[in-house]
Amino acid sequence: MAATEAGGRAAPVNASANAGPGMGTGSRKAFYQFGYARAADQDAFAATGKPPRHPIVVVGAGPVGMTVAIDLAMRGNEVVILDDADRIGEGSRAICFFQRTLEIWDRLGVGKPMVDKGITWQVGKDFLRDDLVYQFDLLPEDGHKMPAFINLQQYYAELYLVERIVELPRIDLRWRNKVSAIDSHADGVRLTIETPDGPYEIEADWLIACDGAKSPLRAMMDLEFKGEVFDDRFLIADVKMTADFPVERWFWFDPPFHAGQSALLQKQPDDIWRIDLQLGPEADPETEQKLENVVPRIEWMLGHSNFELKWVSLYSFQCRRIDRFVHDRVVFCGDSAHEISPFGARGANSGVQDAENLAWKLDFILKGEADTSLMATYDAERSDAADENIGHSTRSTDFIAPKTEMERTLRNAVLHLAARTEFARAMVNSGRLSQSVTYATDFSTPDTEAFSGSAKLGAPVPDATLRTAEGRET
Ligand SMILES: Cc1cc2nc3c(=O)[nH]c(=O)nc-3n(C[C@H](O)[C@H](O)[C@H](O)COP(=O)(O)OP(=O)(O)OC[C@H]3O[C@@H](n4cnc5c(N)ncnc54)[C@H](O)[C@@H]3O)c2cc1C
Predict the structure, then answer these.
(1) Residues with beta carbon inside 6 Å of ligand 1?
(2) Where are the alpha helices (DSSP H) in 309-374?
(3) Which of 67, 84, 232, 249 to mutate to test ligand 1, by most ligand atoms within 8 A of the CB atom?
(4) How far apart are CA 159 and CA 474, in angstroms?
(5) Residue 113, Cβ neighbours under 10 Å: how many?
(6) Which CATH class is domain 3-27+231-316?
(7) 434 CB contacts (<8 Å, ≥6 apart)?
(8) What is the residue extent of each domain of the chain?
(9) Residue 293: phi, psi to the nearest 5?
(10) Which residues contact residue 268 at a Cβ distance below 8 angstroms, ignoring those fewer than 6 apart?
(11) CA dist., res. 167 & res. 71, Å (int)
(12) How far apart (Å, rounded) are the C-alpha atoms in residues 53 and 70?
């Protein structure tokens, strides 16, 4: 049976072009290319030999770096962002963005294009072979400004953030500016930057490292990135096809079209569907990405060949984090601070929450409304959040890809029970999707009264009464 028939669904209709022979894998062209422009700092450094100084330098124009830069600029700060590339749009990465991320982006003036373009969804279904074993609704009640989740290709999210940056004169975004060395000291950081015109140097009061999971800055500072590396490999295929099955997240354990493994199907904008197929630890990346191997797998899953293959890649995953997020004036944020396996969509989503947590604190410090000790709360809160996200993601990964026969036997027992009994359904774990992380409150502090009986810090409070500027309660 084909994937599209699971749960009694009809096969897709109006299918478009065929998978074309000759399509290279991993070959999507750069979606947008921005080019390099010489910065005034380069001339100033060449003329004087003295590195120009900036209050905030962000390294990395990924979703997290751009979010923190926009937030700081909208609070009135001048921000320089450096990125070693001059493009977005290579590869298939994040697609699921959750409500809290959308609320943050909405405050920053970029929520609407994300939601307008994204595919809104809230229902997920898990199948064991053909049987529905678990179903969830992420937003059972109405009245929220932002949806529970959207699916949106990361390259669109990055494009909308770049477009927002262009509207903000306080941000100086420099493409093809690769940071090759840093010298961090108690009250600032000196950076060496490689460009097509050669190297130059600048200084920063604060350096925000948003340079991704491989973080060259982390390596330059000789900081460890500790955690778990998983052996299993997954194939990602983005296929273009028109289909009228419901906009839901479908996950299969041991599906008939991919026996003994797992599979995931989700819709993205532009009639692109994301397919994830578990291949196991032995899969050879080169062989598995060959068209003659990929296309039949997808045909078997979909039950037809009316699709166009847009992207294929293989990934394995890690759950790791840095020990401390703040090192004097260098602050790690997003994937540079924590790498989270994709199950649960917690990578970019938690990075955007790091960015929000950091921006107002750094703004207070720069305006003299708080001293630098406030940064310790960023470290404490976002370290806790990283642990919580990594915990969820690790448990999901262990359930989806059991490492031992004993784990697999237990997992299969849960799945079989879940098909028949209510209590086992909650134990099915194909990814606990991203939620706002709540922070532990220290009730031994004088704030005890203020917090007693209230929601946990960081939790949404949907029924809370708000007072308007005129003093009216709503
Ligand atoms: C298959 C897959 C699926 C995923 N799905 C989801 C999902 O559904 N939801 C979700 O929330 N997350 C998901 N993620 C995770 C998400 O993609 C990452 O968490 C996110 O990209 C992290 O953003 P970032 O800005 O921290 O880092 P990045 O996006 O990695 O950006 C880092 C930037 O730093 C730049 N850079 C690096 N070194 C230098 C240097 N020396 N100088 C200057 N610039 C530099 C890079 O060019 C890059 O632009 C997924 C990841 C994968 C692999």
Answers:
(1) 59-65, 82-85, 93-96, 154, 178-179, 210-212, 216, 236, 315, 334-335, 342, 345-349, 351
(2) 347-366
(3) 84
(4) 36
(5) 18
(6) alpha beta
(7) 96, 98, 100, 101, 344, 345, 346, 349, 350, 389
(8) 3-27+231-316, 32-227+323-394
(9) -100, -35
(10) 95, 119, 151, 152, 153, 238, 274
(11) 13
(12) 20
What tens-digit pLDDT sequence spans the chain (474 residues)?
444 433 322 222 222 222 222 233 333 344 678 889 999 999 999 999 999 999 999 999 999 999 999 999 999 999 999 999 998 866 678 999 999 999 999 999 999 999 999 999 889 999 999 889 988 888 777 888 999 999 999 999 999 999 999 999 999 999 999 999 999 999 999 999 999 999 999 999 999 999 999 999 999 999 999 998 888 899 999 999 988 878 899 999 999 999 889 999 999 999 999 999 999 888 888 888 899 999 999 999 999 999 999 989 988 888 999 999 999 999 999 999 999 988 888 899 999 999 999 999 999 999 999 999 999 999 999 999 999 999 988 888 888 888 888 988 999 899 889 888 888 888 888 877 777 777 776 545 555 455 555 667 777 777 777 788 888 877
Return the DSSP state at 446.
T
Could you tell me which of 185, 186, 119, 128 has the C-alpha nearest to residue 156?
Answer: 119
Q: Which residues pair with 57 in a beta bridge?
A: 80, 207
Tell how far the Cα of 371 is from the centroid of ligand 1, in angstroms: 31
Domain range 32-227+323-394, CATH class: alpha beta
**pTM assigned to the model:** 0.90
- What CA–CA distance (Å, rounded) separates 244 from 13? 6
First to last CA, the chain: 53
